[in-house]
Amino acid sequence: MRSILYIVLLVIFQSCASQAKPILIDSEMETNVKENLAYYLYYPEDYEEEPDKDFPILLFLHGGGESGDSLVTVKRNGPPKLIVQGKKFPFLILAPQNPNEKKWWNTRAVKQLLDSVVNKNRIDKRRIYLTGLSRGGGAAWEMAVQYPDTFAAMAVVCGMTPLPYASWINRDMPIWVFHGEKDKSIPIEESETMVAKLKEMGYEVIFTKYPNVGHSAWIKAYETEALYDWFMNQELK
């Protein structure tokens, strides 16, 4: 009796097993990802004095050390630091803060913020500039890839590069890359490889290497007065 019952159960199990098949379904879900971006917005001193003039704007993306929920840390490096020290710029500067200390920049959110600031101010849309350092440098490269029709020029300091997508960057956009030769956080080979590929494809790239400088190449880079003159000479083509 037991053997008959065993045989019956075995037949039922094998039958069910033979009928079981993987399933592929079609579906969709609308996602809604929110990002709260605190930011500084600098206006040149003649912005109010010339109400009929459209001004350029520079988007600055800080490094990982300035991420978090204390906006004042954004003033530690780059153009915001120079503004605190009294430097005057001929364009607006938008400096948002990445609220996530251990996450990459949400570049889609940054683009939405940039678009909002541009639309609410007297901005020359053909003279929107982009720069970033370290983690922000990587985000700058990413934005150049994702939004090739937005920026007139870009300067990147020791940022990780999207090498496989280099050709997606606007071929008419001038690029200036800075890197310290002794950088142990993001080796200079990261920039060297990217610059070589861009030049091979005919891009206009300036590459400044700093001997005996580590990851803090941004100190010298953003103190380069010629950088801001260079930005002001660029226009979206």
UniProtKB/TrEMBL annotation:
A molecular function GO annotation: hydrolase activity
Classification via SUPFAM superfamilies: alpha/beta-Hydrolases (SSF53474)
Gene3D superfamilies: alpha/beta hydrolase
Residue intervals of the Dienelactone hydrolase domain: 109-216
Signal peptide: 1-20
UniProt-listed InterPro entries: AB_hydrolase_fold, Dienelactn_hydro, Plant_Biomass_Hydrol_Est
Keywords: Hydrolase, Signal
Domain of life: Bacteria
Any Pfam family the entry gives: DLH
Name the UniProt record assigns to this protein: Dienelactone hydrolase family protein
Species, as recorded: Maribacter spongiicola
